[in-house]
Design brief:
single chain; alpha/beta; Zincin-like; 2 domains; three-stranded mixed β-sheet; 48% helix
Length: 181
């Protein structure tokens, strides 16, 4: 199969040509007036395309290997974890939200609002706890400095954090797709 056959070419009223990965597919977005350049772009971006096709294949394989189940108690787990870590550092969020996010599991604003990716509901309790601890630490320290890492490791444990972070990478494919919800 030719490389061009593995790419979805979409013509749109856009200014710039771009390649993107969406829902396990590489898409070339190109202005209608420049469709004649599609083969040239694919040829020039061959390495990027092949790299991302391999990534997509890896993610699909991981999806098959990991049993994903809905954790119906995820909000209870999140709330329990927030309470546990907040009490330890004496910092509390102003608000907790769940929303669709494309590239992260959670974030904490400087105003104290913690947002969790709604796909957290597919994770097991230990990984939810890891994400919650990370975001709660941001209530005190709003960056990933040495001080942040020290606080995080003090609360969660350095070895436990490394293990959870490694395991969480197996679930990154959930961030890449909207088909799970």
């Amino acid at each position: 199969m030719k490389l061009k056959d593995k790419i979805k070419i979409i013509t749109r009223d856009v200014t710039y040509i771009r390649l993107e990965v969406k829902n396990f597919q590489i898409r070339l977005i190109i202005p209608k007036s420049q469709i004649h350049k599609a083969d040239e772009i694919i040829s020039n971006k061959r390495n990027w395309i092949e790299k991302h096709l391999k990534l997509i294949d890896t993610v699909i394989e991981q999806t098959k290997q990991i049993k994903i189940k809905l954790n119906k108690d995820y909000k209870t787990i999140v709330n329990r974890s927030i309470k546990k870590y907040c009490q330890r550092i004496q910092a509390y969020p102003k608000k907790i939200e769940y929303k669709k996010m494309k590239s992260c599991w959670g974030l904490c604003s400087k105003s104290g609002v913690i947002k969790f990716n709604d796909k957290i509901k597919y994770l097991k309790q230990e990984l939810i706890d890891y994400i919650v601890c990370h975001e709660v630490c941001h209530l005190k320290i709003h960056n990933h400095s040495k001080a942040f890492k020290q606080l995080f490791y003090k609360l969660y444990g350095k070895e436990s954090a490394k293990k959870a972070q490694s395991e969480l990478r197996n679930f990154e494919f959930l961030l890449l797709t909207s088909k799970t919800n």
